[in-house]
Amino acid sequence: MKKFITVALMAAMALSLVSCNNGTSTGDSSTTSTGSTETSESTESTGTETASAAKVGTAVLPSQEADAESASFDVVYAAVIVDGDGKILDCKIDQTQYQPTPDNTAVDMRSKLEKGDDYGMVSSGASTMEWYSQVEAFEDYVVGMTGDEVAAIEMTDGKATDADLTAGCTISIDGFVSAVKAACDAASDEVGSTDKLAIAVTSSDGSSAEEAAYDTDFCAVTVDGEGKVTSCNIDAVQASVAIADGAFDSASISNNSKRALGDDYGMVAAGASTMEWYTQADNFENYVVGKTADEVAATALTDGKATDADLSAGCTIDITSILANTEKAISAADAE
After folding, report:
1. Which of 10, 206, 232, 284 is deepest in the core (most CB within 10 A)?
2. 288/296 Cα distance (integer angstroms)
3. How far apart, in whole angstroms, are the C-alpha atoms of residue 130 and residue 95?
4. Residue 108 pairs with which residues in a beta bridge?
C-alpha cells in the first residue's frame, strides 16, 4: 500500500510559483507527493553487478488567486526517478494555468507542454525558446543532482543565475525547483534504474453561469523493458471559484489536490463510500502495476466504474478520466 506525503510550502515560494505567467502572481500553494513505502536494498550476486535501487516520487503544487474581475489557477507537476544515492536519473515537469473571467470561463484546457508552440513565447517575442524547450533544459540540468542540490540552485527574482542553465532556460524556475525537491523527498516507489518515466495531464471544463470550475488529472508512470508498468502515481486537482452578480467571489476560490485533502475530501463523511478517494486511487495504482498498455486499455467499465472484481473491490469511483489519463502516460512512456 502506498503512503502519500503532503508537504507545506512557504508562502513566499508560492507567490512566484508560476513560471512565465505573463505577470500573473499566484497565491498559497500546497504540495502533494506520492510514492510507495515498499523498499528493498540493492543487491549484488556473485560475479554480477546489479543497478542500485531506483525510486520514483511525484509532487503536485497548486496555487490560486482571484479578485472580482479575474482568477488564476495554476499547478506545477513534477515526477522524478532517483538512484540509491538520491541522485536524479530522470525528471519530468508540466504545468497547467487557467485564467478565466466572470463573463468568459472558457479557457484552453491543454497543459503548457501540450500547447507546444501554441503557448506562444516565441511568436510573442517574449523569448527565442518556447516553454517546453526551456523546461526540457531544466529537466536535463537537474539530472545527477540530489533534491537538496536542486533546492540550492541559485536564483535572482525566480530565475537561474548559472550560465549553463540560463543558456537554455531563462524563465522563472522557482516553482520547478520546489516541485522537483518535493518529488525527490517523496521518492519511495521502487523501480528499475533503466525504466522509462512519463507523465500525463488531462483537464476538463465543468464551468457554469454560477461557477468557473476545472478538473485536472495527473499521472506519472514508469515502464520496464518488457512494456510493463512498474509504478503508477495519480492525483487530481479541482479548481473553482463562484460567480455572483457578474463578479467572482474571491473568498470562494479553491484549487485543491484530492490527495492533499485526504480525509477532508469527504467521501466517507458524506456517506458516498466506505473508502476515501486517496485509498481508492491507491488501489487503482496497484491494479495497474505489472500490466502492459494493452492490458490497462482493456480495463472494462460500466457507467465509468470498473467491472473487474479485483479492482472494484477497492475502487468504486468513476475512473473514466483516471484510466484515460493513465493510458496517456503509459503511451508517452512507451514512446520514450
Report:
1. 232
2. 6
3. 14
4. none
Pair 19, 171: CB distance under 8 Å = yes
Sign of the C-alpha dihedral computed for residues 165, 169, 170 and 173 taken in this order? negative
pLDDT at residue number 304: 98
Grid coordinates representing 130?
518556447
pLDDT per residue as tens digits for the range 138-190: 999 999 999 999 999 999 999 999 999 999 999 999 999 999 999 999 999 99
With b for 16 or more beta-carbon neighbours within 10 A and e for fewer, the 253-277 pattern comes to: bbbbbbbbbbeebebeeeeebebbb
Q: What per-residue string of b and e applies to 91-120 under the rule 16 or more CB within 10 Å gives b?
A: bbbbbbbbbbebeebebbbebbbbeeeebe
Query: Strand, helix or coil at 204?
Result: strand
Residues paired with residue 8 on neighbouring β-strands, in sequence order: 30
Kindly state the cell numbers that stand for 252: 470562494
Joined grid coordinates for residue 83: 538512484
Query: What number of other Cβ atoms are within 10 A of residue 156's Cβ?
Result: 7
DSSP letter for each residue of 10-64: PHHHHTT-SSS-TT-----BEEEEE-BS-------BTTB--PPPEEEEEEEEEEE
Q: Residues in the chain with pLDDT < 70?
A: 1-52
- 112 vs 115: CA distance, rounded Å: 5
Count of residues making up the chain:
336
pLDDT at 44: 41
Q: For residue 101, what are the β-bridge partners?
A: 104
Cβ–Cβ under 8 Å, residues 92 and 139: yes
Q: Tell me the C-alpha distance between 180 and 243, whole Å.
A: 35
Q: Is 184:197 a contact under the CB 8 Å cutoff?
A: no
